[in-house]
Structures are given as structure tokens and as C-alpha cells.
Amino acid sequence: MKPLKFAFVFLCSFSIFFCNSFGQKKVSELTVVYDYSVTSTGASENATTTIYMKGNLVRSETSSSLFSSSTIYDSKTGQAVLLKEVSGQKLLIRLTPANWQDMNKFYNGTIFTNTSETKTIAGYKCIKAIGKNKSGPDITVYYTNEIVPENKDYNPKFKNLEGLPLEYELANANFKIQYTVSKINLNPVPASKFDIPKSGYREMTYEESKKLKTGD
């Protein structure tokens, strides 16, 4: 390749990279609040999910009029704790890395493909993408690459997504779950958010919790 032509190609490539990277903000601490609705067999339910990220630690809280639950996950160790409160009963479930992988196996290998559709959500330009995997429901997502979580393991659904989801939908023949961001906070997250309760909960293993769900 002639030197002049090589320089032109290099400058074009650099410009594309620079434009794509400019405006991106990689964050290690972040709070995101989603409003979400679940529709299944004619019934519907509304709830709120809040995700706190601080380095390798993640806490996800979901609350509705019927139940509340929290997940505290350490991506460095692969261990997690589930906190659930249903009908006045408070449960603490400890997960090994293998348990965590089993719980989220439906989203293993999800691949996202961008579309040409965009829209602005909460002041951020978002790209529409479709996520497909072998066993779980398809994920339709609008995400921004202006905010990129440093912890790629903060949510198993979006491990391969190059940005932060601000709106997404999971659906199959039996249900539809839709999330829409209502608040984004880039301030530091208190370390106390990731404290695990030492009392007040009935503790059980992941295997015991699975039997509880199935009624075995």
C-alpha cells in the first residue's frame, strides 16, 4: 500500500474509533432504577427494580405490593446471597458460583445484534438491539453506550451488551416483562448496601429453595 493511501486509511479508522469512543463513560459505581410490569395469562403486576453497582459488588432489589427480594452478588468470588420476603416470611439463600450459573443458565451465550433503530431515553441516545440465546426468551433492548459499567458481570442477561440497558423486554408465548429506566445516579454507592443480614432470616441452601418452589 502506498504511504499516502495507508495514512488516509489509518486516519479514517482512527476517526471512526474516536467518534465511537467519545462520550463514553465507564463507571464502577452506579445506581439504576427501573419500573417494570409483568403480564402473564391475562394478569399483570407492576414493580420497581433498583440495581446498585460498586466495583465487583452488585445489589439488585425488586419490590411490589406482593413481595420483595434482593440479590447481592460478588463477581470476584462468584458467590451470591438471595434475600426474599413473601407473606411475612423472610428467607436468606446462599449461592455458590455453580448455583449462580445454574440460576442464570437461560441467558448463557446471549448474543446481541444492533438494529438501525434509535431513540432517546432519560436524555441518553439509545440503540435498539435484539438478544438471542439457546434456551431463554429473546431480549429486545434499548441501550446507551454513553454509560458502560466496568463490571460486565453485573447482570447475566447483559454480559455481552456494549452499554447500559435503559429499556428492555423479555417475552415468550406465556409472559411479557417490560423494564423502563426511571432514574440513573452516578454518585458513589454506600458500602453498607452490600451488607448481608446476620439475623431475622430463615437461612437455606439453593437446593432447598428449589424444592420449595416445586413443592417437593
Describe the protein in words.
The protein has 216 residues and is α+β, with helices and mostly antiparallel strands. The protein is 16% helix and 51% strand. The strands form 2 sheets. Strands 8-9-10-12-13-2-3-4-5-6-7-14 form a 12-stranded mixed β-sheet. The longest helix has 19 residues, at 3-21. The protein is globular and about 50 Å long. The chain starts with a helix and ends with a helix.
Q: What's the SSE blueprint?
A:
Layout: H1 3-21, E1 25-27, E2 29-40, E3 43-54, E4 57-63, E5 67-74, E6 79-86, E7 89-95, H2 97-103, E8 111-121, E9 124-132, E10 138-144, E11 147-149, E12 164-171, E13 175-185, E14 202-205, H3 206-214
Parallel strand pairs: 1-11, 7-14
Antiparallel strand pairs: 2-3, 2-13, 3-4, 4-5, 5-6, 6-7, 8-9, 9-10, 10-12, 12-13
Sum this structure up briefly:
Helices cover 16% and strands 51% of the residues. It has 216 residues and is α+β, with helices and mostly antiparallel strands. Residues 2-21 have low confidence and may be disordered.
Question: What distinguishing features does this structure have?
Answer:
216 residues, alpha+beta, outer membrane lipoprotein receptor (LolB), chain A, two-stranded parallel ribbon, globular
CATH class: Mainly Beta
CATH architecture: Clam
- Total domain units: 1
Q: How would you state the average pLDDT, rounded?
A: 86
